[in-house]
Amino acid sequence: IERGPDREKMLPLFQDMIEGVLSVPVNLPFTKFSRGIIARRKLVPMILQVILEKREALEEQRNPQKDLITSLLSLHDQNGSSKMMSEDEIIDNIIIVMVAGYDTTSVLLTFLVKLLANNKSIYSTIAQEQEEIASKKAYEEALTWEDLTKMKYTWKVATERTRINPPVALSFRRAKQDIEYEGFIIPKGWQVMLSASMTHMDDSIFQNPTMFDPTRFDKHAPPPPPFSYVAFGGGPRMCPGFELAKMETLVMMHRLVTRFSWELLNKDESFKRIPMPEFDQGLLVHVKPLKEDGVIY
Ligand code: HEM
Known about the structure:
The protein is built from nine helices and eight strands. It has helices at residues 5-21, 32-59, 68-74, 87-118, 120-134, 145-149, 152-164, 196-200, 242-259, and strands at 170-174, 179-181, 184-186, 191-195, 260-264, 271-273, 277-279, 285-289. A hairpin with a 2-residue loop joins strand 2 and strand 3 (184-186). Helix 2 packs across helix 4 and helix 4 (87-118) packs parallel to helix 9 (242-259). The longest helix has 32 residues, at 87-118. It binds protoporphyrin IX containing FE (HEM). Residues 96-97, 100-101, 104-105, 108, 162, 167-168, 171, 231-234, 237-241, 244-245 line the site of protoporphyrin IX containing FE.
């Protein structure tokens, strides 16, 4: 969805909808839940319009873009005849991807911005790694996949950040049959809540769990046992956006540390999970370009 007035109209509706998804499900006027439902109702025709435009471009072979909606529209069964997804299914998938992929990455980036402002040693090691990559490229030249593979320290820091503050602290599974686990029966049909935060703070898995230590994820360090680093979930339903989130985070960190310095203006750095972590006063940052004069707020 390109930048422009249509996208601007969608943004507040998405925000209302995300709040609705994460709220107590009480459908009374003025609750977040009911605002979320109303927002979704308004969003559906807007997304449908985007789908119709992309379908037209695809059918007329008018420079169809390689985006998610176009890919979903292009899915056909094995004979190549009937379409595999209805418009309603595409709308639902677009909505879930936007809900799942928006606050998660922005929460991680926010916590990284805070970490780098407070920890000069981590900041300078990341800056050195990124400067080395930038020095081999022209100003504004796009990063390549190969460049991203060189950002090993930056990604270790991001991984440790998501261990300590997982953007998604809880997820759910429903028992398909009675399950016995450590002497307890989880009856068929019950939901089980998995807590990434508690797993990540278990000192039988991560030594000194509250200590920020990116070297836990060093190539030579013993890897955490399977399903113990679960910021992106695990198993067949593991986050399908993992690679995209990694790419967004690394590109953003590259641009930030090679072009700007910043300091925090917050007096109070406390945050609450509602249920995504949010700073009580937002994260106020004073950003300065490194190479030009002037100040950006
Ligand atoms: C730092 C960023 C992100 C984090 C920490 C994160 C974390 C998670 C977690 C914990 C789950 C649940 C996995 C499970 O139940 O086992 C999940 C699911 C999901 N994520 Fe992400 N995610 C991130 C970014 C993204 C992005 C960028 C997208 C797409 C644009 C995305 C799309 C999804 C979708 C569609 C699901 C549902 C998968 C399913 O139910 O099969 N996520 N994510």
